[in-house]
Amino acid sequence: MVESNIKNNTLISFIIPLYSVKERDFNRCMDSIYSQNIDNSTFEVICVDDCSPTSETEEIVAKYKYNAITPPNLTFVKHPVNKRQGGARNTAIENAKGRYVFFIDQDDFICKGCIDVMIRAIRQYDGIDLVMFDFVTADEYGNITQEGYYKYKYDNNFELISGREFLSSYETPWGPWLYLYRTAFLQDNHFRFEENVRFEDIDFVMRCTANAKGIIFIPSPAITHTESEYQTSAIGDSREKIIDFLKLIYRTGLVAQEEFDKGHSDSGQAILQHHLFGYKSQLKTYLWRLRYTNLYDCLTKYPPLLCTDDIVLSFIAKHPQLSTVLLKSATPVLRSAYFFYRLAKRQKKV
Question: Where are the alpha helices (H) located in the chain, listed in sequence order?
């Protein structure tokens, strides 16, 4: 374990969950932070190894140096049992010393110059719960494929508003790596990621956003998010991933229910639309791939919520067994349609 010498004036805790990390990806991620020449006393980096099957990840972290020096503000934690990405992030939240936390996936990296922008935002909007940034997309080798996204949707920026106003007025991003989160806001409200699941982010982001007293958008990219068809988030025909993704959609519906129960209909409706859209997408793309027993179990345990205005989803919620029969009977047609959809998409790329 690498000891940390962080003082209490730390502004940002960069949180990086690790699992069987590639040395290339780890070094690129770390270099993107330390190459920005920010005083080490103003931030810390917390790497949590989520019980990687070998010692290689720990060895990669232990030998990391920048300018031939082991960073004094780098902390390494290793889980004795696997809790998946959500559990790794939770461990870091509980140990964070920074006033704000920022999540980074192990194959992503920080944009040049953005840490200075983060620090200036923290000082300008002292005590704000969330600071949102834009992002850049790249392939697995770091080649940029898209420059920014939200700056075109938010007219460059918006005034300081509450999280519920934001949900009601703007498209809400799902990536937890787009925000600076005030650490006390997460800790005091016990906001944590779902553990031991493959998809843990959307409900966390929605719940944090809904409860934020203040949020500001900075139209500057903070992170380069890499995308690859080989990433573990790709669902394919994996039964476990299909079920875990449905659980995520279901939990998002629960966040919408929380908002309605508190009397916040506008923000509740905004989150509900994410839930309903996600459920319909699951029906079209993945759920029909499950075996009968798995599908019936999913439709029973994780039904669409608050969907009285949607005929199809309301029917599924009320009649999970019949819905299972109908969906499985349509599987050959759906499989053929999906095959031609993928074929057309592949040819379009070529």
Answer: 23-34, 56-62, 84-95, 114-124, 163-169, 183-188, 202-211, 239-261, 265-285, 292-301, 311-318, 320-329, 331-349
Per-residue pLDDT tens digits for 90-114? 999 999 999 999 999 999 999 999 9
**Could you give the 3-state DSSP secondary structure of residue 71?**
coil
Rounded to 5 degrees, what are φ and ψ at 197? -135, 160
Q: What are the residues facing 14 on neighbouring strands?
A: 45, 102
Residue 336's Cβ-side half-sphere holds a number of Cα atoms within 13 Å equal to 3
Q: Check residue 80 and report its DSSP letter.
A: S
Neighbour-count burial for 319-328, b at 16+ CB within 10 Å, e otherwise:
ebeebbeebb
Closest CA to 131 of 113, 148, 118: 118
Q: pLDDT by residue (tens digit) across 45-75?
A: 999 999 999 999 999 999 999 999 999 999 9
Cα(290)–Cα(297) distance, rounded to whole angstroms?
10
User: What is the number of residues in the chain?
Assistant: 350
Q: In b/e form, how buried is each residue of 230-240, taking b as 16+ CB within 10 angstroms?
A: eeeeebeeeee
Exposure of 36 by Cβ count < 10 A (0-12 exposed, 13-18 middle, 19+ buried)?
Answer: middle
Supply the angle between the helices 331-349 and 320-329 in degrees, to the nearest 10.
Answer: 60
For residue 96, what are its two tokens?
A: 């964070």
Q: Which residue has the tokens 């992002």?
A: 135
**Which residue type sits at 101?**
V
User: pTM for the whole thing?
Assistant: 0.88
